[in-house]
Amino acid sequence: MNNVCVRPAAAEDFTFLATMLGESAVWRPDKPTPTAVQVLADPRYAMYLAGWPRPGDHGLVAEDAGPVGAAWYRTFTETSHGHGFVTEDVPELAIAVVASRRHEGIGRRLLADLVDASVAQGYPAISLSVAENNPARGLYESSGFVPVEKRGSTWTMVRDAPRSN
After folding, report:
1. Among 101, 110, 37, CA closest to 70
2. What burial letters (b/e) apply to 53-72, b meaning 16+ CB within 10 Å?
3. CA gap 28, 107 in Å, rounded
4. Where is 44: in which H helix or E strand?
5. E-assigned strands of the chain?
6. Does residue 70 register a pLDDT over 70?
7. In whole angstroms, what is the distance from residue 102 CA to residue 72 CA?
8. What CA–CA distances, in Å, run from 142 to 17, 46, 109, 120, 138?
9. Exposed, middle or buried by CB within 10 Å (0-12, 13-18, 19+), for 133?
């Protein structure tokens, strides 16, 4: 983690973000991770990156001699939204770290920085969707996310922005 730097995601990171979306969506080691092309061809996942970057989108890329992880969020509408949608003014995040670099604190740093960015942009909260048995759920809970709805074996979790006095 010492050599890892985090920078804003840009349009040229699109393919890496799609690769990370595949890692995020299919996180189990016993299942093959879809390629960026496969992710973008699947409407269930493509919505998380279609037109990247749209106004209001914010993302981060962790690098250490190349990209090793990414996290980003975007808002959705009532009629077109992701799996962790709660309201139109709460962005939903996606996050992943390449398998060989997990458990080094990279995901925690990306998540903390992304939450800080959402607060700075004035969002009242940030949401995500996570499978009940995904080990990343512990990271989300320890970062202040709380379960708000369960659909099948997947939880929608929300982290409220700190209230200012």
Report:
1. 110
2. beeebbbbbbeeeebbbbbb
3. 16
4. helix 43-46
5. 5-8, 58-63, 67-74, 92-97, 125-131, 146-151, 154-160
6. yes
7. 17
8. 24, 28, 13, 21, 6
9. exposed
- How far is it, in rounded angstroms, from Cα 20 to Cα 6? 15
* Whole-model pTM over 0.85: yes
Nearest to 120 by CA among 60, 65, 79: 60
| Lookup: tokens for 74 | 């975007």
Taken in order of first residue, the domains within the chain and their CATH numbers are: 5-160 (3.40.630.30)
Structure tokens that stand for 107 in this block: 């995901």
Distance CA 111, CA 46 (A): 21
Choose among 50, 39, 52, 42: nearest CA to 8: 52
The chain-wide mean pLDDT, for the chain, equals: 89
Q: pLDDT digit string (tens) for 131-163?
A: 888 889 999 999 999 999 998 989 999 999 887
Cα 124 to Cα 146: distance, rounded to the nearest angstrom:
14
